[in-house]
Specification:
By secondary structure, the chain is mainly alpha-helical. The protein has one domain (about 30-160). Helix content is about 90%, strand content about 0%. The protein is elongated, with a radius of gyration of 30 Å.
Length: about 180
């Protein structure tokens, strides 16, 4: 009987020890992400560099779109004037506060991911495949934007045409209202 009780006590003690050891691991899965977790992920992902490269791609794409849009609106626009617009856009994008943007992103990552998620993502992006994905992302983004440029331009042209039509209708209504009020 004593042997049986001792066996039960030993089993209970072992189960209790196992539970005590497992609790931190179980709690860790739902542990909230810390600022340091997010910053570690950002560092492994080279987020600051990725944002800079993406902004450069956006700048080049926007320059092309802006030039075409301005030229279509005013065919007499000089190259010197276009160059000044390019400089203004370059200056605006160059002064983007990337560090502040990263700080703004940290609570968003903390809201959507827990500690375990960020550890898993950090491990993936630290791997060779994760690093390759990160390395190829700016080119993928730029090439995707270039591939969809024609579709975007058609949509922008249609939107501009609709706005011009609405403006012309508004002007006609205003003109008619003025004429009616003068009668």
């Amino acid at each position: 009987m004593v042997r049986l009780l001792r066996g039960i006590l030993v089993k209970k003690l072992l189960v209790s020890l196992l539970l005590l050891c497992a609790l931190p691991a179980l709690a860790q899965t739902d542990a909230p992400a810390t600022k340091e977790d997010v910053q570690k992920l950002f560092n492994v992902m080279h987020v600051k560099e990725q944002i800079s490269e993406t902004l450069d791609g956006v700048r080049k794409q926007q320059r092309s779109i802006m030039r075409e849009t301005l030229k279509s609106g005013d065919p007499t626009l000089s190259d010197a004037r276009l160059a000044s617009y390019d400089q203004a856009m370059d200056s605006m994008l160059k002064d983007m506060p990337i560090d502040g943007m990263l700080e703004d992103m940290i609570p968003i990552y903390q809201k959507h991911f827990n500690h375990a998620d960020l550890v898993a993502m950090t491990d993936f992006y630290a791997s060779p495949t994760g690093q390759k994905a990160l390395h190829e992302m700016p080119a993928l983004t730029t090439e995707s934007m270039q591939a969809s440029y024609g579709r975007m331009q058609k949509q922008m042209d249609a939107a501009m045409q609709k706005i011009k039509q609405m403006a012309a209708e508004d002007q006609a209504k205003q003109k008619k209202a003025i004429q009616d009020s003068q009668k």
